[in-house]
Amino acid sequence: HRARPLKGSGKPNLGFLNTPEGKIILDSEPYTFEGWANAFDLNIAALEFSMDGGATWTRYDTPDTDNNRWVHWTYEWT
């Protein structure tokens, strides 16, 4: 997974939750990633996920966010 930060801003910050280091995720079974994102004084309009090094991206809009709250997200991948 890789986030696309705003150029030169250091934004957004993000993290993963409940995925232990070294966990083997099989490509034949669904796995739900979970985490948070924060862009400080900016709203997060969407999250984008790439599982192939950036060749393709999956976008999830986050219409009900505001810049005062972190975004908690989940992403199921098979």
Account of the 3D structure:
The protein is mainly β and about 80 residues long. It is built from no helices and 5 strands. It starts with 12 loop residues before the first strand and ends with a strand.
Brief rundown of the structure:
By secondary structure, the chain is mainly beta. 0% of the residues lie in helices and 36% in strands. The protein contains no helices and five strands.
Compute the CA-based radius of gyration: 13 Å
Broad shape: globular
Mean pLDDT: 83
- Major sheet size, sense and barrel closure: 3 strands, antiparallel
Beta-strand proportion? 35-45%
Give the tally of β-strands: 5
Q: Can you list the strand order of the major beta sheet?
A: 1-2-5
Helix content: under 10%
- How many H/I helical runs? 0
- Which parts are unreliable, with pLDDT below 50 for 5 consecutive residues or more? none
Give the ordered list of helices and strands.
EEEEE
End-to-end span in angstroms?
Answer: 14 Å
**Structural class designation:** mainly beta
What tags apply to this protein structure?
three-stranded antiparallel beta sheet; two-stranded antiparallel sheet; 78 residues
Write the layout of secondary structure elements.
Blueprint: E1 13-17, E2 31-38, E3 46-49, E4 58-61, E5 71-77
Antiparallel strand pairs: 1-2, 2-5, 3-4
